[in-house]
Amino acid sequence: MSLAHLFSADCIVELVLGSARAEEVHADERALAAGYGPEPAALFALGRTAAHRCLRHYGLESQPVLRGAGGEPIFPGGLKGSIAHTEGAGIAVTGPGGIIGGIGIDVERRGRQVNPDIARKVCRGPEAANLERAGENADELLLAFFCAKEAAYKAFFSYSGVRLRFEDVELDPGPEGFRGRLAEPERWPGLPKSFRALTWRGEGLLVLGVTLPS
Ligand SMILES: CC(C)(COP(=O)(O)OP(=O)(O)OC[C@H]1O[C@@H](n2cnc3c(N)ncnc32)[C@H](O)[C@@H]1OP(=O)(O)O)[C@@H](O)C(=O)NCCC(=O)NCCS
Known about the structure:
Elements: E1 12-17, H1 27-30, H2 38-56, E2 66-67, E3 73-74, E4 79-86, E5 89-96, E6 100-109, H3 116-122, H4 125-133, H5 138-160, E7 169-174, E8 177-182, E9 194-202, E10 205-213
The chain binds coenzyme A (COA).
């Protein structure tokens, strides 16, 4: 599966590797990173650079990607979008707001160990049983569970401003990623009850994408 196939055909995904040039960060965005140390500032620049490369496809590259009260990126031109970054990589996805209800992306370096305390929060019940069965692939699967839930968190937040917890989402691993559902859909009237979280591996990275239709 290619990176573009994580999302529907009307979405744009851009990955930036290495370091970003400061001039690709809009002046209005620089204020969002005021007070950041060098490492967070570099990650911020990677994410915004990826976002601007998405905006270039719509002729909107001179517009800033600002930040909402929940920390979420606000894309111009009625676009929905999501940003993620990890050491040496920034990634962004955008899609038309009328078609996309919510969208989320997450990226991690493959081989990253998930803290055991977080692992216990991320995976419970059948998810934890899947991990036990995964044997030597358990660390990789745990990272994918984590990444998928972060992508789902961003997608549901962009859908309706809801902040899901790890236990609010249940994931079943499958060949292309995960089938996901809300654990207690009756608690969330109006939210999509199920979704897919698709996986891409390349460049030493693990990327998970979630799209919720409008
Ligand atoms: C918001 C959160 C998902 C960001 O994840 P992270 O691993 O810290 O960082 P990432 O590189 O993956 O993503 C960072 C980007 O997420 C985006 N983001 C921040 N808050 C967001 C929100 N509420 N909704 C959507 N996107 C958000 C921002 O664009 C941010 O980058 P920027 O500050 O440079 O603009 C994470 O900090 C968090 O709060 N998680 C909640 C716990 C959780 O994941 N639960 C899962 C429930 S299913």
